[in-house]
Amino acid sequence: MDPQDPRCKDLASPDLANFGVSLFIVLGIILSYVPQHARIIGRKSSFGLSPYFVLLGVTSQNCFFANILTLPKSQQDLQCCRNINGFACFAGTLGIVQVGSQWVCFLIIFFLFLLFFPRATSSTTNPAEDPEYPSTKTALAVTAISVAHAVLVAILSLYFTFGQRQYLQTYANIIGVCGTGLAAVQYLPQIYTTFLLQNLGSLSIPMMLIQTPGSFVWATSLAVRLGAAGWSTWGLLLVTGTLQAILLGMGIYFLIRDRRNSRKDSDSNSSEDDIANGLLATEETPLLEDSE
Q1: CB 55 within 8 A of CB 145
Q2: For 82, which DSSP code?
Q3: How far is 75 from 78, CA to CA, in rounded Å?
């Protein structure tokens, strides 16, 4: 691309403030997923995560990543990297790095979900005793559909990038809308599963505490970077942030409720033990014990 292109000139002199915010978002995305990864690994179970939440999450992230890669403006930024220095290139493509980071982080959740999917030998729960809980066949179906979707999206993206560039913006918008649609319903099965179980299972509250406000900050950053033409990209973040806020509120409610119930049970058991050991005074207990 011509180094005198206005877009390349803009990228050659990056805004340090915007760079700082964008880099902070990348680090925030990565760190926000660590609690969820750690919770699944620590429990050695993905119990509580809806397979349909994982499926919709993977497919929406596939669409989201393909969307930002195929946006003509993103491809223009990548082409400008040939004519600008490394720092300017890195700063100018941080929007792509942000989306790519989230895609990779959710893929890790996908793999952990499959690796630690509850089976009959699980100490956390026995799925065979719970007809409401998805079977291993469901997990395998999620895997097959996710892989097939990723391959299809990759083929279509390559086709429009190298064969039908005149329709590239339209394709990017369409796949972005598809991603938004998938993300819009992604949290519905998880909300349903969490409500059904009446507990968090392997769902991480710290992850959602970081990601919920982070989604709105990230959407603002991408809106500034991509403008109105990138509405299909940052619009997805607004939708997911709102739905995640609902799930977060539900999770916090169950967490507080369970802790209160645990304290009540603990106090009740303590009282029963004290009475059994004769440590609590009753109406039949003499004020002065016989010293003999």
Answers
A1: yes
A2: T
A3: 5
